[in-house]
Amino acid sequence: SNQTSSEASVPKKVMVIGGDGYCGWATSLHLSKKNYQVAVVDNLVRRHFDHQLGLDSLTPISSIHNRIRRWKSLTGKDIELYVGDICDFEFLSEAFTSFKPDAVVHFGEQRSAPYSMIDRSRAVFTQQNNVIGTLNVLFAIKEFGEDCHLVKLGTMGEYGTPNIDIEEGFITITHNGRTDTLPYPKQASSFYHLSKVHDSHNIAFTCKAWGIRATDLNQGVVYGVRTDETAMHEELCNRLDYDGVFGTALNRFCVQAAVDHPLTIYGKGGQTRGYLDIRDTVQCVELAIANPAQRGEFRVFNQFTEQFSVNELAALVTKAGQKLGLEVKTVSVPNPRVEAEEHYYNAKHTKLVELGLEPHLLSDSLLDSLLNFAVQYKDRVDPKQIMPSVSWRKIGAKPKTVQA
Ligand code: NAD
Ligand code: USQ
Asked: Is 33 among the catalytic positions?
């Protein structure tokens, strides 16, 4: 590093875009705890989606203002808050020039594949919000902080499920006797996952053209809820989505088991993905910030720790449930998505381990605690929100009405 010793003692400033969300809130607290100076940027649109669709987190969550006040009262640490939309470049410029971040962690996107497949307007919103938001962040860095490191949340879903091993971002190919290292082919399968592909292309281009330093974290599916910091007080509690739109596979299965709902396996259940514990999300982001990309470098890390098929997850939750006296059943739901249900999957994930990631692998004790957590809050579950309601094939231009 080219930091002098006097500079090294000044805490790094990290702007966390999407810092009120599931991954972003846990990361904001973790970085603040580790003595980074943190600013949360969020327009709270996720809380608005929940209201629009009649959904709610399993866990009760405090307002972002109360969360930040509680953190200050418990630890003495300040987290700055900028409430606004990063698609509004004036707002973003103001936040940038006032906070002057050394790194920006960008979680602030519409992140649900089913949400992006509800209807035309949600598909358009998702790509507009995500692609333009990221473009604005790139322009803000170029304009106001050329040295600022962009740590961008991408997704393993950018790669799809090719019948060959998945590399970390790039693949070396020999074609007609010539060899080159090229971006790994992208085959995303929702308008949401495609928005991440478009982001990756825009980021790679600006690294080359403007010398931006960026790390694209192709994250797998995140599970779990508690981190050391969010467990400190109920007002710091993180959100846990279990509904058919925002809930993700393992978290959903634990909540389903807690309320005696059969585990919802879509189609044949052979869909295999990379997964990681939310305690590793915060660790990975910290590692990326502590070891920044070089000027002009577009780095890609595959951010997950283990691969599972949907059927394997269902079997693990069934076994863990039995130990707690829950009789867990499964049901095969006609797949609402268009995706391979039996396929090869072998994705590399060594770069974060090389930087020092110590994974929390999925264990019986984590499953026990997640299941116990779900049982603790099971009275808050609305069973009507569990079954999937969004069809990849039936999406149309007409606004979809929300069932009351
Ligand atoms: P989330 O919906 O809980 O949080 C996203 C946050 O971003 C919300 O608080 C929302 O209000 C904010 N936001 C959205 N658009 C914004 C805008 N235009 N301006 C300002 N703020 C905006 O989602 P999450 O689960 O925490 O995911 C965070 C990121 O990580 C996303 O980019 C997602 O694609 C990625 N990711 C998530 C998972 C997962 O399993 N949850 C897995 C892989 C990747
Ligand atoms: N699935 C089921 N039953 C369920 C829920 C999901 O069988 O009840 C299946 C899906 O069909 C899919 C797989 O499980 O094959 C994963 O689905 P998911 O909803 O858990 O995850 P996904 O839609 O891919 O999206 C989530 C996050 C997204 C992130 C992505 C990482 O919402 O933000 O980008 O995980 S990844 O999957 O690696 O692309």
From this structure: no
